[in-house]
Amino acid sequence: QVQLVESGGGLVQPGGSLRLSCAASRSIVSFTSMGWYRQAPGLQRELVALIAFDGRTNYSDSVKGRFTISRDNAENTVNLQMNSLKSEDTAVYYCKVIHIFRAYWGQGTQVTVSS
Fold first, then answer.
1. String of b and e for 16-28 (b: at least 16 CB within 10 Å)?
2. Are the C-beta atoms of residues 15 and 85 closer than 8 Å to each other?
3. Residue-wise pLDDT tens digits, 47-79
4. Minimal CA–CA distance to 33: which of 103, 85, 106?
5. In the list 25, 81, 100, 108, which could disulfide-bond 3, CB 3.0-4.6 Å?
6. Distances (CA, A) of 70 to 13, 14, 39, 47
7. Which pLDDT band, with edges at 50, 70 and 90, does 33 fall under?
8. Which residues neighbour 28 within 8 Å (Cβ) at sequence distance 6 or greater?
């Protein structure tokens, strides 16, 4: 079992920055992948960014160049640095990990980009 707790969401103005963090209840070294997803009202949940066990990353086209995903094996966290935020980034952001062929999700954290 893996428990995930997201933090760092909030209200920010367009053009601002936020840093999300996802803390895992166990060592993340053996996780196949860790990622951030988001879901806006009325829309399907979508991939934002992914980082594999070997450090390879993948981003959705909508966030490339603005968001950066990273993992801290010592702290057992995966982080998402979000810069140049836009109103369309408003959503609930979820952390997901794949470990031994199972998927685990966090409870989500709200990000609202508004003036």
1. eebebbbbbeeeb
2. yes
3. 999 999 999 999 999 999 999 999 999 999 999
4. 103
5. 25
6. 24, 23, 21, 15
7. very high
8. 34, 71, 73, 76, 77, 78, 97
